[in-house]
Amino acid sequence: MKLALIGTGKLGCALLTGLFQRGVLAPQDVGLLSRDAHKTCQVAGRFGAPVIGRGDLAGAEYILLCVQPGAFQEVAGWAGGHSAGYISTLAGVTTGTLSRCLGSERAVRAMPSLAATIGRSQTALTATPGAEAAGDLAFAQGLFGAVGDTYRIPEHLFDTFTGMSASGLAYAAVFAEALADGGVRMGLPRPLANELAQKLLVSGGELLAERPHPAMLKDEVCSPGGTTIAGIRALEGGNFRRSVIDAVEAATRRGHELGRGERETGDS
Ligand SMILES: NC(=O)C1=CN([C@@H]2O[C@H](COP(=O)(O)OP(=O)(O)OC[C@H]3O[C@@H](n4cnc5c(N)ncnc54)[C@H](OP(=O)(O)O)[C@@H]3O)[C@@H](O)[C@H]2O)C=CC1
Ligand SMILES: O=C(O)[C@@H]1CCC=N1
Asked: Does ipTM exceed 0.95?
């Protein structure tokens, strides 16, 4: 077995979708292991990949962890100690913690996003020296590179990458929802408002890609004395940019907390 996937939730399934669509791995190369047997079987049926047991981990070349950070200690207790290379997608959990708790010198830390499902993830990567020497970082670059862009990031910036990029998809969704709400408030039918908001984010992203700084697009759209600058002024009044900056900071700090083993309920 090339890869054992532990955790077949939202991210695990997004990765399977992207990887199988691009043919980097075939379903028979991947074994699926999760907590709820019924749910795991459903995922196995959907992708055509086999369900495996804990005993099968000994035969895996790589073990990819996609469980919640709060489950890590328990999972490490039975998934650690194998000869496989370990790859973790867990928010906050450092390579040092991975290596220590899994009892392995081969630990890659990855931070992809749900955009893996459409081949557009931005994935941060870092690794222990042992993983790098064993070729595990190169393997991870190939794996995540097949479902988007990869970035080698120093570990001290990993939580920031998480709070901006992986979490950022949700901020974009909140913006789209709020924009559509604005359209509805001013009289647009909901389906049309939702469609406009979604397509606007796509076209906005493409236009931003053609410019070195986002402010250029903003300036081009803002006609002097026109409608857009009136809208921008209202955003400033609501501290929009400060709120977005604070969101990245809060998410980054939360990553630090999760790495220290604090609970996912928000308790500290
Ligand atoms: N969602 C996202 O956008 C991103 C998430 N991540 C990281 O990916 C990880 C998973 O997130 P996500 O997919 O959203 O979470 P989900 O809750 O959707 O999935 C978690 C999976 O882990 C399984 N699981 C939980 N506990 C255990 C256990 N003790 N033994 C075996 N399997 C277990 C769950 O099984 P069951 O359903 O049966 O409980 C489920 O299949 C997290 O660590 C997160 O930080 C990283 C980047 C992006
Ligand atoms: O919200 C979270 O903790 C995970 C990590 C990044 C995206 N989702």
From this structure: yes
